[in-house]
Amino acid sequence: METKQFKAESKRLLDMMINSIYTHKEIFLREIISNASDAIDKLYFKSLTDTSVGLNKDDFAIQIKADKEAKTLTVEDNGIGMTEEELENNLGTIAQSGSLAFKTDNDLGEDVDIIGQFGVGFYSTFMVAKEVRVLTKAYGSDKAFLWKSNGVDGYTIEPAEKETAGTVITMVLKEDTEDEKYSEYCETWRVQQLVKKYSDYIRFPIKMDVEHSNYAEEGEEPTVTIETETLNSMTPVWKKNKSELTDEDYNKFYSEKFMDYQEPIAHIHSKNEGIATYDALLYIPSKAPFDYYSKDYEKGLQLFSSGVLIMDKCADLLPDWFSFVKGVVDSEDLSLNISREMLQQDRQVKIIAKNVEKSIKNELAKLLKNDREKYEKFFEVFGLQFKFGIYQSYGAAIDTLKDLLLFKSTFEDGKSVTLKEYVSRMKDDQKYIYYACGETKERIDKLPQIEKIKDMGYEVLYMTQDVDDFCLKVMLNYDGKTFKSISDADVDLDTEEEKEEVKKLDEENKDMFAFMQETIADKVNKVRLSKKLKSHPVCLSSDGGMISIEMEKVLNSMPQNDANRVKADKALEINPNHEIFGRLQKLYAEDKDTLKDYTKLLYDQALLIEGLSIDDPVEFANLVCKLMIK
Ligand code: ADP
Ligand code: MG
């Protein structure tokens, strides 16, 4: 018989399993039972529409047998089974189980974390077994096969005999060592304990023959009877009443179901009757999965119809901005054989999705109100998603999210504030909600424009994430108050008199400004006096238009935009109260060539302050030198 080798990725994982020092090796049973349950789910689902399956709901079960003599543990299911090809593909390669989509260059030590966080599926059996045999027959096939492996030397597949569809997994346990009592896994009490701990909510009965000793009379030999017992309680937790459940029950279910061993921030358990009848149990995780902000992340809730799983990740039940939510929805209104396409159109699903969104929003609002610290932590992890949500939905999500947003602000030096809080503190004469964009709070604090606004006593929101400016541009305003970037040309900070004065000065110097603008015509649309500078000589302003300077920065840093780079309309603004202004006027009258150099230098300075790179650093350096030796 030919011995086949495991695929390279699988081999690495297997080695890790065989040599694992992981202390919770017991999870192998959870993995095997969950596979059995998945397989039964598939056949049960088929049986609902296909009477030739010949099994009723009550016929489906998982059987566990422990043989102390042979030191084997056997888990049998009457599920869908596997064909020869499926055996080959599913057990020869582990990569498709998704568990190994993480870094593979782990040496021992790090495996501990991986096993705990992801659960590693079928191969985890090799943590406790020296040989694993899989006898299986696919539903609808008349051939059965036996897969066998000791993990180290590859595996074999041979034809075998089996009456009915399903799978029998036999694990030959490793020899006991000082530290590990593998033989314990064929003790009834241990199996009972593990099923309760990890697999209590499996929807199908997990059965085992249990010995009972009955002491009839004192002095007499006990009689031993064997009874088949169901080890798990089966009722899904979401079907139970809230009053029966503790936080611990909820959290336990969460960690088992979603393989996240950090306690969730909150859970939402709702039972609904009316236009849509459904139970939902939703969780807000406390940390983002490793791939959350990548395109590999798949959002969705598990969708059940009267307890039968119909979809593992139903994306239509969750809006993108709440894509971090995990949970289950169980509705008797849904037809079992509904297709993915039909689900999207389904009226019930739409109603449920709306309600789900509302209840998540309410839960978060409640958290924000009652436990600010916890909410801020949550927002650190998932807040970015809200901003993307507003931007990517073209504003459809504004109403849902606007009061869930947090921004750092100059009020109490960088503390997080809500927009509601900002508005409640606005001064009587304050027209706008001011914000400033930059890489960090520290950088923004150094922006020339911010000084004057702070002096006037206005609060400024720090926008340090790429998406911020886009998000606010989509929102336009909050509570009727317009957002205004302090880099905008028309950030209006002056009294009428001051405005008049600047206008006059601008007018008087318009020829000089035109001359300066010509010098850097390809870079700015306008050179003018500034109304928003206090001590700095220059700044760049967005000069109207849809693209702000901040957006230019972000969009041009994306590789896909290389071909069609965008350009913000910019103005170079000069501080009329700065000494440099007088100097410029003098040069305009006496030495226009030097004024050209000055203009270029001022422009480059303004770029640097904004955190943009200068176009020609060599020219910049040369100009500075020229001035230094003058
Ligand atoms: P996962 O369950 O995450 O897909 P596993 O490593 O646990 O990964 O299992 C790999 C695959 O092997 C499963 O996806 C399934 O196709 C198949 N499999 C495992 N156990 C059984 C079983 N008892 N019956 C049918 N197929 C099974
Ligand atoms: Mg599995």
Automatic annotation (TrEMBL):
<dbReference type="GO" id="GO:0005524">
    <property type="term" value="F:ATP binding"/>
</dbReference>
<dbReference type="InterPro" id="IPR019805">
    <property type="entry name" value="Heat_shock_protein_90_CS"/>
</dbReference>
<feature type="binding site">
    <location>
        <position position="31"/>
    </location>
    <ligand>
        <name>ATP</name>
    </ligand>
</feature>
<dbReference type="Pfam" id="PF13589">
    <property type="entry name" value="HATPase_c_3"/>
</dbReference>
<protein>
    <recommendedName>
        <fullName>Chaperone protein HtpG</fullName>
    </recommendedName>
</protein>
<comment type="similarity">
    <text>Belongs to the heat shock protein 90 family.</text>
</comment>
<feature type="binding site">
    <location>
        <begin position="97"/>
        <end position="98"/>
    </location>
    <ligand>
        <name>ATP</name>
    </ligand>
</feature>
<feature type="binding site">
    <location>
        <position position="35"/>
    </location>
    <ligand>
        <name>ATP</name>
    </ligand>
</feature>
<dbReference type="InterPro" id="IPR036890">
    <property type="entry name" value="HATPase_C_sf"/>
</dbReference>
<keyword id="KW-0963">Cytoplasm</keyword>
<keyword id="KW-0346">Stress response</keyword>
<dbReference type="Pfam" id="PF00183">
    <property type="entry name" value="HSP90"/>
</dbReference>
<feature type="binding site">
    <location>
        <position position="90"/>
    </location>
    <ligand>
        <name>ATP</name>
    </ligand>
</feature>
<feature type="binding site">
    <location>
        <position position="82"/>
    </location>
    <ligand>
        <name>ATP</name>
    </ligand>
</feature>
<dbReference type="InterPro" id="IPR020568">
    <property type="entry name" value="Ribosomal_Su5_D2-typ_SF"/>
</dbReference>
<keyword id="KW-0143">Chaperone</keyword>
<keyword id="KW-0067">ATP-binding</keyword>
<comment type="subunit">
    <text>Homodimer.</text>
</comment>
<feature type="binding site">
    <location>
        <position position="77"/>
    </location>
    <ligand>
        <name>ATP</name>
    </ligand>
</feature>
<feature type="binding site">
    <location>
        <begin position="117"/>
        <end position="122"/>
    </location>
    <ligand>
        <name>ATP</name>
    </ligand>
</feature>
<dbReference type="GO" id="GO:0051082">
    <property type="term" value="F:unfolded protein binding"/>
</dbReference>
<feature type="region of interest" description="A; substrate-binding">
    <location>
        <begin position="1"/>
        <end position="340"/>
    </location>
</feature>
<dbReference type="InterPro" id="IPR020575">
    <property type="entry name" value="Hsp90_N"/>
</dbReference>
<dbReference type="GO" id="GO:0140662">
    <property type="term" value="F:ATP-dependent protein folding chaperone"/>
</dbReference>
<dbReference type="InterPro" id="IPR001404">
    <property type="entry name" value="Hsp90_fam"/>
</dbReference>
<keyword id="KW-0547">Nucleotide-binding</keyword>
<feature type="binding site">
    <location>
        <position position="167"/>
    </location>
    <ligand>
        <name>ATP</name>
    </ligand>
</feature>
<dbReference type="InterPro" id="IPR037196">
    <property type="entry name" value="HSP90_C"/>
</dbReference>
<feature type="domain" description="Histidine kinase/HSP90-like ATPase">
    <location>
        <begin position="24"/>
        <end position="177"/>
    </location>
</feature>
<feature type="binding site">
    <location>
        <position position="340"/>
    </location>
    <ligand>
        <name>ATP</name>
    </ligand>
</feature>
<feature type="region of interest" description="C">
    <location>
        <begin position="554"/>
        <end position="630"/>
    </location>
</feature>
<dbReference type="GO" id="GO:0005737">
    <property type="term" value="C:cytoplasm"/>
</dbReference>
<comment type="function">
    <text>Molecular chaperone. Has ATPase activity.</text>
</comment>
<dbReference type="GO" id="GO:0016887">
    <property type="term" value="F:ATP hydrolysis activity"/>
</dbReference>
<dbReference type="InterPro" id="IPR003594">
    <property type="entry name" value="HATPase_dom"/>
</dbReference>
